[in-house]
Amino acid sequence: MAWTVAAKLSDLSEDSAFAVELGKTSVALYLVEGEVYATSNICTHEFALLSDGFVEDGFVECPLHQARFDIISGRALCAPANEPIATYPAKVENGVVLVDIQ
Q: Which structural domain, as residue segments, surrounds residue 31?
């Protein structure tokens, strides 16, 4: 695995997404019940940044057409999206969030 520094843990908060660019990959970071998760920041239905969307109870809603995704699995939960978003391994070491975008 190629872990990349993505953010400080203090940059994240519950019920919001934090956007980072890791190389050419746009990633959204989330803090869900104290655990850090990372997904693609791009909606699979139409180009929109999920970090601009609504985050609650482990789900993110696209700000463009309200497609919803499970943050942990990436699964698309409702139309208009039917393709999942990519998820990436994430971990915290010494207050720093690391992500493996493979």
A: 4-99
